[in-house]
Amino acid sequence: xxxxxxxxxFKVALVALDLTELxxxxxxxxxxxxxxxPLEQIYFVHVAKDLALPADLLEEYPNLLGPxxxxxxxxxxxxxxxxxxxxxxxxxxxxKEGNPIDKILKLCKIKDVDLIxxxxxxxxxxxxxxxxxxxRKCPCSLLxxxxxxxxxxxxxxxxxxxxxxxxxxxxxxxxxxxxNGFELSAIHIYSVPSGYHKTGKSFEEFSDVMKTHAQKNxxxxxxxxxxxxxxxxxxxxxxxxxxxxxxxxxxxxxxxxLIIIGSKGRTAVSSILMGSVAEKLVxxxxxxxxxxxxxxxxxxSFLDALMKI
Length: 309
Fold this sequence. Notes:
Distance between the termini: 18 Å
Shape: elongated
Number of strands: 10
Number of helices: 10
Radius of gyration: 21 Å
Oligomer: single chain
Low-confidence stretches: 124-129, 265-274, 299-309
């Protein structure tokens, strides 16, 4: 799969389920986003570590011979019928056995997945799937949902640093807005360089310089990408380089329903890391869903190695 920095609509999605209560919210959120994104196919996937029943248990209870994968699939299908409503989107259940992260990543390549829906537990019990592990290694975009994520899409926030990955995130947001009409805004978090005092200006004076520079860059960001000029941007100063917490604080204060952020992935197996802000958003305890937009095919060297295992 070739890495591309060009905008690619989300057509194929994978929803990672772990048979906990969080599955209900994930399926509901997938249904919500299916009405906003141009999705055509969604795979609802559960990976069990071991589908086989113990031999001694089968000997004692021969009526348990029904395949576990069929039973799990039936339970998931029942939830899909209850919570998912998007008639124009094809759905399919897939039950796999093995390491959840490895199996999901392999399916992403086999099915050419554009977007993964994954739960991020805050208070529910259950083993779940390591969202940070998927986030670091997956070759596609990732949408993280918690059990108390709101099932609405009225306000969407895009943190921007004017990079190409920010433009991909903004374009996904703009395309989604065309199908929904939600309120879209941006936020740019800036800091003052440590050597500002050499300019003869105070901290406050140079922070104004940085803000003015950021405002100019945002206007150029919109113009160079042919983005609508009516997208507002808030400028927040951080004094301690805590970009992710500040973004979440702003989002919670302004009742944001979804954060969409670009992630700069690397293709080298030895350094499969996201951009620092995007990665930290994975770990922050918040009910706000986060959509991490990647260039399609990032981290494919890891996937190529994994496919040979």
